[in-house]
Write a structure and sequence with these properties.
Elements (H helix, E strand, L loop, with lengths): L2 E7 L5 H11 L4 E5 L4 H5 L11 H22 L2 E5 L7 H13 L2 E5 L9 H6 L2 E3 L2 H12 L3
Parallel strand pairs: 1-2, 1-3, 3-4, 4-5
Length: 147
């Protein structure tokens, strides 16, 4: 079974690489997509539409351009992995989880136990809650295995 997985959320650690490399080592038939993870590039996505004097309008234009990529990736995925880190608030990840839920898309959350209370509603709609990228890899292996 070929699986299309969207990786959403926190961009300040290598969790995406850990999952992708873990799946490659197991030779799992999975394709991955993601939002732009380069913070500066993401913030500048709308700069082609003209310079802004206020950060609000720059952010607004860039968020709309980024939303095109994210919306299409979520709609095309079979499963989303949504990572919440403890250093920054990932409001966009919570939005992605809500969008997945509204579309009936399966998603798995990935975050430390200390965030469990704050994310109880997000986790409540998730198909699984994981605390490590390795747990995600094990679930993906199970999903695509023939046994």
């Amino acid at each position: 079974m070929k699986l299309n997985v969207y990786l959403s959320g926190e961009i300040h650690s290598d969790w995406r690489d850990q999952i992708i490399e873990g799946c490659k080592k197991l030779r799992l038939d999975i394709s991955f997509s993601s939002a732009v993870t380069n913070h500066e590039a993401s913030d500048a996505a709308g700069d082609c539409l003209g310079q802004e004097d206020k950060v609000h309008w720059r952010d607004h234009k860039s968020s709309r351009i980024n939303a095109i990529r994210i919306k299409n990736s979520i709609e095309k995925c079979d499963l989303a992995i949504i990572r919440f880190g403890d250093k920054y608030k990932q409001w966009n990840a919570a939005y992605d989880a809500g969008y997945c839920s509204a579309l009936g898309k399966a998603y798995i959350t990935l975050h430390e136990e200390s965030l469990g209370h704050a994310l109880k509603e997000v986790d409540g709609s998730a198909y699984a809650w994981t605390t490590t990228p390795q747990q995600v890899v094990e679930i993906l292996q199970y999903i695509v295995s023939e046994a």
